[in-house]
Specification:
Elements (H helix, E strand, L loop, with lengths): L1 E6 L9 H16 L3 E7 L13 E5 L7 H10 L7 E4 L12 E5 L3 H4 L1 H4 L3 H20 L3 E4 L2 H10 L7 E3 L29 E6 L8 H11 L6 E6 L7 H8 L1 H4 L2 E4 L4 H10 L3 E3 L8 H8 L4 E4 L2 H7 L4 E3 L4 H13 L1 H15 L4 H16 L6
Parallel strand pairs: 1-2, 1-4, 2-3, 4-5, 5-6, 6-7, 8-9, 9-10, 11-12, 12-13
Helix pairs in contact: 1-15, 7-13, 11-14
Length: about 375
């Protein structure tokens, strides 16, 4: 039986995008890999088993997936010589790892556009150096690379034109049992965030410059200036140091329109998607764009950007605007606010588009990557 180690320490209560990716992938991957025994590295704070299955063993290891603990300690702490493969879900390979690896590359923003990753110069310089070192090693030494979008695969070819590992595009999926409009909470369940009688639009994502929150906030405030009953709910999983964004949120006209929320439960997030007038997702850079896909699955119209990965996900099922063009953003937001038939059209198109992205397909393609990376023993 094959033995595959997967770093699943990102699967904790307050999951990042990588945590959602790993959890969703594993739930569909383990049942179809009947000849594989999985060893999942688990965060000490994880409250329950990630996947309960007779072919799954979980081992606790400290630190985050993309941490110094991973780079310097994991290869020594875990005896990987007996593993057939190690899957790094986030571009970081432990020193001293003694088995072949597959790495998932989400994006190369820290290499291509570090100014969009952080507005805080010291953090930008330090992280850009860290990622330059680790991306090259992870991709250069991999048996196979998984890119979560064609846009990311193209970025790998641009930045590392001499890489030798094959690259497979494996799109994320969406959990339709979870993102189901019929099962979402009622509008009344959101009164602690947005009081009854108000309409609202939604932004979801971390507080980094590439998410373009400041531009979307400015455009929304201008587009809805004559509509006092329309709010913008801004859900920011975490916020990096960004003084200009902080000053923007302190403006009186912005405070009157924008409701900021640092974190919400899954149930609340799903209800927010369900009852929103639209999702604003005009990012300047993305590796994929999972919030857009989640909103589309719920039938919520999406204002997307023209960034390559975002266009790859939304296709023709969203209204797209140039993320750096204020007038275009204002015009497109105003169109969605005022045109109910357009919102309904995009909502229906979004549901149909989202159904092309499934975690089952992602799991099947990932398993194919594993077998190619392991080689003849995978079919023995």
């Amino acid at each position: 039986m094959l033995r595959i180690v997967i770093d699943a320490r990102s699967v904790i209560e307050k999951k990042s995008g990588i945590g959602n990716y790993v959890e969703s992938l594993l739930k569909h991957l383990v049942p179809i890999a009947s000849d594989v025994r999985f060893v999942l590295l688990r965060h000490p704070d994880a409250s329950s088993p990630i996947v309960e299955h007779e072919r799954v063993e979980e081992r606790v290891y400290r630190g985050e997936t993309k941490s110094v603990h991973t780079l310097l300690g994991l290869g020594l702490a875990y005896p990987s010589a007996d593993a057939d493969l190690y899957h790094a879900p986030a571009e970081l390979i432990p020193l001293g790892l003694r088995c072949p690896w597959v790495v998932t590359v989400h994006d190369l923003m820290w290499i291509e556009a570090p100014q969009l990753a952080s507005a805080f110069v010291p953090e930008r310089l330090a992280n850009a150096a860290w990622y330059r070192l680790n991306y090259r090693r992870a991709i250069g030494g991999a048996r196979h690379v998984i890119a979560i979008s064609r846009a990311t695969a193209d970025a790998i070819d641009r930045v590392y034109p001499d890489h030798s590992a094959p690259v497979s595009v494996v799109h994320h999926g969406v959990d339709f049992a979870r993102y189901d409009a019929a099962r979402a909470g009622t509008r009344a369940s959101l009164e602690a965030i947005v009081r009854a009688g108000l309409r609202y639009s939604l932004i979801v994502g971390q507080g980094s410059p590439y998410k373009n929150h400041a531009a979307m906030v400015r455009a929304f405030v201008e587009a809805t200036r004559g509509d006092p009953d329309h709010r913008l709910v801004l859900v920011r999983r975490f916020s990096r140091v960004d003084l200009s964004m902080r000053r923007l949120l302190e403006r009186s006209d912005v405070r009157a329109k924008v409701i900021t929320v640092p974190f919400v439960s899954d149930a609340t997030l799903i209800a927010l998607y369900r009852h929103a007038q639209m999702l604003l997702f005009a990012s300047r850079y993305e590796g994929f764009g999972l919030p857009a896909l989640e909103a589309m699955a719920m039938g919520t119209p999406v204002l997307a950007s023209t960034a390559p990965a975002v266009r790859e996900v939304v296709g023709e099922a969203a209204l797209c605007a140039l993320p750096t063009d204020h007038s275009d953003l204002v015009e497109k937001i105003r169109s969605l606010v005022e045109d109910e038939s357009l919102r309904q059209k995009l909502g229906a198109a979004g549901v149909a588009r989202a159904r092309a992205f499934t975690w089952q397909r992602a799991a099947e393609r990932t398993l194919q990557v594993y077998r190619r990376a392991i080689g003849p023993r995978a079919s023995a």
